[in-house]
Amino acid sequence: MTTSKKLQSFTAPKGVPDYVPPASSEFLAVRDRFTGHAHAAGYEHIELPIFEDTALFARGVGESTDVVSKEMYTFADRGERSVTLRPEGTAGVMRAVIEHGLDRGALPVKLAYSGPFFRYERPQAGRYRQLQQVGVEAIGVDDPALDAEVIALADRCFASVGLTQYRLELTSLGDATCRPAYREKLQEFLFALPLDEETRRRAEINPLRVLDDKRPAVREMTADAPLMLDYLSPETREHFETVTGLLTDLGVAFEINPRMVRGLDYYTKTCFEFVHDGLGAQSGIGGGGRYDGLMSQLGGQDLSGIGFGLGVDRTLLAMQAEGVSASAGRRVDVYGVALGAAAKREMVRLVDQLRAASVSADMSYGDRGLKGAMKGADRAGAQFALVLGDRELEAGEVAVKDLQAHEQTTVALADVVRHLQARLERG
Ligand code: HAM
Question: Which residues does the UniProt record annotate as the domain Aminoacyl-transfer RNA synthetases class-II family profile (predicted)?
Answer without folding.
Answer: 29-322
